[in-house]
Design a protein that fits this description.
The protein is mainly α and 449 residues long. It has a domain of 86 residues: Tetratricopeptide repeat domain (Serine Threonine Protein Phosphatase 5, Tetratricopeptide repeat). 78% of the residues lie in helices and 0% in strands. The radius of gyration is 27 Å and the shape is globular.
Amino acid sequence: MTINLRRSCAGFLAIAAVQVTMSGCAGYANNRVERGDAYYKEQKYRDAVGEYTRAIRVSPNNPRAIRQLGLAYSGLGDRAQALGFLERAQEIDPNDAEVRLSLGALYLSELRRDDAVKEAKAVLAKAPSSAGALNLLGGALMSKGLLDSAVAVFRRAAELAPGQPRIHYMLGTGLAAQGKSAEAARELTEALAVQPSFIDALDKLVQMDLAANQPDVAVERIRKQMSIVGDSARMHNLLGTVFIKRGDRQLAEAEFQKAAALDPKLSEPQSRLGAIYRSQGKLDEALASASRALRLDSTNVEARMVMGLVYQQRGDVTAATAQYRAALDVRPNFAPAANNLAWLLADRSPQAALQVALVAQNADPGNPNILDTVGWILYRGGDYGRATAVLKDAAAKLPDRPDVQYHFGMAAQKAGDLSTARDAFRRAVNAKTTAPESDLARNALASMK
């Protein structure tokens, strides 16, 4: 009879007819761990997870299997499983720097900044020159908005480990956040010089080009890097993003299609194609592309937004709400999803809608679209004074949006400022674009005469 080694050792020992020793189970577990390690080294994380899982079925407290499961799940992007195993591994061996740094990175990705700082400092207490720990600490400090402290940490890391592209990238990112564009560009360029395929450094330089309203410079920068490192899906994806910013949707679509063809497992090009198809009114194609993106990466919030917007356009409020909530489950401070969810909740539950809208406003304070949402929810809740103040700011920033002007006019009218209300309604009626609110504003004006 064959023996099912997937049962626990305790189960085997309970079967008197089968003589299985603890050493036999340990040998089986160690063999599985070794096979898992081989897969892990080749970055075949799913296969590695399978082997490590088989090991802990017969040896539930195997420290190596627990540790490696955490790292492998992290490699797969499964944060929930990774956290569970890495936290267990850290309890088993608090001095394991790799575990603590991986755990800290996961904490940071979930905005548990203080926990990330704690892990970084624990490693630095044992290894003050650890570039990885300094990077983690600097990243956590930057996420907390402590830019000066973060840049100081990254400078120290650059001194201790010169020539590390990741350190140059993080230092450049911190300097860019401080507004030191020239110095930031030098650090980011250095990162690319050391590692020409370092797409994150190129991406940040491109963002700086776009912020300086230089999309053509960004295009040339990407094409120059492509001439050095060759075609890649992420390069075409980045180029497509620049074309979107430049208003060249046709060129962008072609680049995203190239990216998807070069790497069918990359989620971003699919979600961005979905966004383009939605803007073209191709709603079925948009849903199909967004669905493909989510099959590849369930945490792709851009794909969730595409699906939510399509369902919203089709009047399916329940499905749209579910997509926006799913996006916020992944990224709790994701302003676009919070804003749209708040708008959908405004009629049914103004108080709940306001709480969600304020999440969006905190994440993106000056965004006039979010201000419009917050103001309109306040109006629906009867707080006309606050609504008028918020909508005044939104209307000033979006003077040609009839919907925003109408909202401002309605709030001002309820607050008793009839002159301001008339002016806002006139702007809504005379706006270059039209919307359902244009007619509503016209009717409101007529009723005030």
